[in-house]
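User: Please fill in residues for this 811-position structure.
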């Protein structure tokens, strides 16, 4: 979070505590063919032939002389998928790859809950989902060229009126739900008013052919919920996208060192080799039960390029594999020396980027760094020596602006202390999800990793103020430089975890530190466990929060009753305290002494009413962190999954008003946020109601002013907490209703009569005789007299203590 948000939260918490303390004193979520066809022709180059199914792709070294082989940037761009969205296939992910760069373009989470619904869907859209097409404007007709069709998506399962099943690569989508489309964004716009489960008509030109003799195909597609696209290009970020973020494939691979040359600090690749995102790799997929689960990419960099860095030809290869029912991607990297002499080689593996930044304008992560906030996406890693570390996206943005020639922040490098580069994990941490590299299961840390650095995937000058929390970030790791003999390879096997931050799942992979509750973690874990227990009983988190509130407030009832008794005692002492205030109108020190003397004499402790507030603060902060961090509350509704308050871990979002006034209603830039929320308003109304019901009538101008300040503070509190999770507002509402009922009940059960006997008859007899024995003084008057009484003067004839003669110093 940025400094403004961090300061805001700290001030809000302090404000709330001060407010509650003062208030206590004053008012007591079927298999299809894999889409791996050539999609488009770039740079007018002929398409590369597709290898036969099940065959290993021929490497460049087998087809041509390695001395002439060059990592090509011309040729057809093709898209591939691993996994499926069909529930019967059992995959938790649907991953889209691109052969230009051999990187990951998109990861969609397709796991299902026991009811068959998506376990994790996008929360910023409630419209129906057709599929992802990597679409672009077709050449010969106004429409969207289909470059990929994910297995099990509504587009893959759509049925045409003429009997064809499923859209295919090369088709052109002309219209969706009756609206003409020319881009992927227009497809999404055409679906904005639809709902999951609804059937829409998709007008398609098969193979892109549209003429007088070929009529378009009309497909009927049944829409589904929108799966969470955990990794996506920046242009598909939706409402959570901000200006300045860059689109880049994830997990790119290139040479970090070859011959005598290494990548410069301000660059991402060796200049002769070029941008890895533009290089064409050959690809081959392997399927299991008709669903592709393995893909291998290869590319060769020949001597024409390698000679420029003092090296010889090399081949880069990489393999991705996924397993049904997991959020893991197994990755194998291979760097082969095709030359005739040994050469020093190292690879660079970039990390994922474009991780979902959902809710960045209201969600608040806590950084383990004491004086540094967290962004919506941060780089986290753990080494044997340093432990778990977090590098904030805002910190990377600040560094990129300050030192543009050296924007990356080094994490560790070779040659450091023992354990410095023993990397246990490194990844991107979001609010409820994580995408991170892990070593193989049997290895405690990565082998042969030389250095790592965090980087910004954004134009720092384009990122707008107050939207810094949503910046795109990533990282890279470089292998140790190895002397690779001819024909030998430098290899690395690792895993990529891309999934939810579920505590049990993270602990299984040694990622438990990804969940950070802050200072009140004990209360957060305790209350979170109790909340889940209650939800398993009642089946609704909203009701569970209410029951949790009742349990917490019920356990604190004895303290609350004592606070009510304390408030009644305060009211009884009010007249006497007023007399003291009048007596010492201009003497603050004397007034304080007299009031303390009175309170001590009658046995009254004014701080006793604050004790419940001290106990409620860690409970409040612990529950706030539990509701903000716990993924089980994400997309859990209060009433309806597609209606108001459909996500208890976010504001209730009753009405969109983001176009009204940016300073107050802007996404990220406004104090209130882009939605009108009802629950915080109800909270404020209940707080004011409590004040009016239980605050005693003002006895003087000072008390009246204090009560007015309390009302204004309550209104400001509603402003400060306008974007808190709906679940927390439910806690406040239930707690306020409990408080109203509790105070009403306690008032009826308080002991009758007065707690203090302040009559003139109860006076210390000895003190009365010293006062003259005649006229009786009230207790307050007598206490005032004692405070005013001067200390006895020292007798004049009292001998002074003999002073020691000065000691004689040795010469």
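Assistant: Residues filled in for all 811 positions:
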């Amino acid at each position: 979070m940025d400094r403004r948000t961090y300061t805001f939260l700290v001030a809000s918490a302090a404000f709330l505590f001060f407010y509650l303390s003062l208030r206590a004193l004053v008012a007591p979520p079927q298999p299809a063919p894999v889409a791996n066809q050539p999609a488009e022709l770039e740079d007018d180059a002929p398409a590369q032939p597709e290898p036969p199914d099940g065959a290993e792709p021929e490497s460049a070294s087998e087809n041509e002389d390695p001395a002439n082989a060059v990592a090509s940037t011309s040729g057809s761009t093709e898209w591939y998928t691993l996994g499926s969205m069909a529930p019967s296939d059992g995959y938790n992910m649907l991953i889209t790859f691109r052969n230009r760069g051999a990187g990951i373009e998109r990861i969609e989470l397709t796991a299902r809950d026991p009811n068959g619904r998506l376990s994790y869907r996008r929360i910023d859209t409630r419209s129906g989902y057709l599929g992802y097409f990597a679409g672009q404007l077709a050449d010969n007709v106004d429409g969207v060229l289909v470059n990929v069709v994910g297995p099990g998506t509504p587009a893959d399962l759509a049925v045409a009126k003429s009997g064809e099943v499923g859209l295919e690569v090369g088709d052109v989508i002309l219209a969706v739900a009756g609206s003409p489309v020319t881009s992927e964004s227009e497809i999404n716009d055409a679906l904005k008013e639809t709902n999951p489960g609804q059937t829409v008509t998709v007008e398609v030109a098969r193979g892109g052919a549209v003429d007088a003799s070929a009529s378009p195909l009309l497909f009927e597609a049944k829409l589904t919920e929108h799966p969470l696209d955990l990794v996506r290009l920046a242009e598909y970020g939706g409402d959570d996208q901000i200006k300045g973020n860059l689109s880049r494939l994830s997990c790119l691979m290139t040479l970090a060192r070859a011959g005598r040359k290494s990548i410069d600090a301000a660059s991402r690749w060796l200049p002769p080799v070029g941008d890895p995102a533009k290089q064409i790799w050959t690809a081959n997929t392997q399927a299991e039960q008709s669903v592709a689960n393995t893909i291998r990419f290869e590319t060769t960099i020949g001597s024409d390029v390698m000679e420029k860095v003092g090296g010889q030809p090399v081949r880069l290869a990489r393999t991705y594999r996924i397993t049904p029912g997991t959020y893991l991607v197994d990755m194998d990297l291979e760097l082969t020396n095709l030359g005739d002499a040994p050469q020093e080689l190292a690879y660079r593996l970039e990390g994922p980027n474009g991780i979902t930044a959902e809710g960045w304008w209201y969600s608040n992560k806590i950084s383990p760094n004491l004086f540094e906030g967290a962004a919506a996406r941060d780089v986290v890693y753990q080494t044997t020596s340093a432990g778990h570390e977090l590098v904030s996206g805002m910190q990377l943005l600040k560094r990129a602006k300050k030192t543009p020639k050296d924007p990356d922040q080094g994490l560790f490098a070779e040659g450091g202390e023992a354990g410095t580069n023993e990397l246990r994990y490194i990844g991107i941490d979001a609010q409820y999800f994580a995408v991170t590299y892990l070593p193989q299961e049997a290895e405690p840390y990565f082998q042969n990793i030389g250095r790592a650095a965090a980087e910004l995937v954004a134009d720092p000058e384009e990122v707008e103020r107050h939207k810094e929390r949503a910046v795109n970030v990533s990282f890279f790791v470089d292998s140790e430089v190895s002397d690779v003999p001819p024909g030998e390879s430098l290899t690395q096997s690792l895993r990529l975890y891309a999934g939810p931050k579920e505590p049990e799942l993270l602990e299984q992979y040694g990622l438990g530190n990804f969940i950070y509750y802050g200072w009140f973690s004990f209360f957060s874990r305790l209350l979170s466990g109790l909340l889940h227990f209650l939800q398993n009983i009642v089946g609704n988190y909203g009701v569970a929060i209410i029951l949790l509130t009742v349990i917490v407030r019920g356990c604190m009832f004895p303290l609350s009753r004592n606070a009510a008794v304390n408030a009644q005692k305060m009211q009884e002492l009010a007249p006497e305290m007023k007399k003291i205030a009048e007596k010492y109108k201009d003497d603050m020190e004397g007034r304080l002494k007299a009031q303390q003397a009175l309170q001590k004499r009658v046995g009254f402790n004014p701080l006793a009413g604050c004790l419940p507030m001290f106990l409620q603060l860690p409970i409040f902060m612990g529950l706030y962190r539990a509701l903000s961090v716990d993924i089980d509350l994400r997309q859990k509704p209060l009433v309806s999954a597609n209606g108001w308050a459909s996500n208890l871990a976010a504001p209730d979002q009753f009405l969109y008003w983001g176009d009204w006034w940016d300073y107050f209603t802007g996404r990220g830039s406004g104090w209130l946020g882009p939605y009108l929320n009802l629950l915080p308003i109800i909270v404020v109304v209940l707080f004011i109601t409590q004040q009016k019901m239980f605050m005693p009538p003002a006895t003087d101008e000072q008390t009246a002013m204090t009560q007015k300040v309390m009302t204004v503070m309550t209104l400001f509190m509603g402003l400060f907490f306008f974007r808190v999770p709906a679940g927390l507002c439910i806690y406040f509402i239930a707690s306020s209703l409990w408080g109203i009922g509790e105070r009403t009940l306690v008032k009826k059960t308080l002991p009758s009569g007065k707690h203090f006997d302040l009559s003139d008859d109860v006076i210390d007899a000895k003190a009365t005789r010293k006062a003259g024995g005649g006229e009786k003084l009230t207790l307050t008057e007598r206490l005032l007299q004692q405070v005013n009484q001067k200390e006895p003067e020292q007798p004049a004839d009292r001998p002074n203590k003999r002073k020691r003669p000065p000691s004689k110093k040795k010469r």
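For context: The CA atoms of residues 758 and 779 lie 6 Å apart.
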